Amino acid sequence: MTNSGDGEGRDRDAAGRARSARPRDGLGRPLPYGAQGVPRQPEGVVRAPRETVTEAQALFDAGRPFHAHEVFEDAWKSGPEDERALWRGLAQLAVGLTHAARGNTVGGARLLRRGADAIEEWGRGRGEDRPYGVDLTGVVRWARELAGRVAAGGEPVDAVVEAPRLGI
């Protein structure tokens, strides 16, 4: 990764694609160059579905929903076409919790609801309620309940306290 950090150029990866080299906090917010951030999730990792769920749950439990979203995004981009809506919905829940923890209550509630709708629709269409150990009914219930509280409260939430239990 090349890093100008001086405003004259953009951070680029080895292939020349724009990539931010700035460190990030636990909620994925950029920190100043040189600050101590949390380790970033590697991008483009292909994991087995249960490994994806286990890794994402560990990140949720650590208060790192932004990073859990990246794990789900890898599954969504690399998994079978007929599972992409599931992984995308789970990624939306993780981003929703991220926004809610950052204080963006409108965006957080919206993404939590959108993710819940996508997961519910996917499960109904597949006739599944526990793919790869994920309790779809419980996760959808969690997301909708949290979305209601986030929208009504207007205050940032604690990402650790509000982390979902995926059910693995």
TrEMBL record:
InterPro entries: DUF309, TTHA0068_sf
A UniProt-annotated Pfam family: DUF309
Domain of life the protein comes from: Bacteria
Composition bias, Basic and acidic residues: 7-27
Region (Disordered): 1-46
Protein name per UniProt: DUF309 domain-containing protein
UniProt lineage: Bacteria, Bacillati, Actinomycetota, Actinomycetes, Kitasatosporales
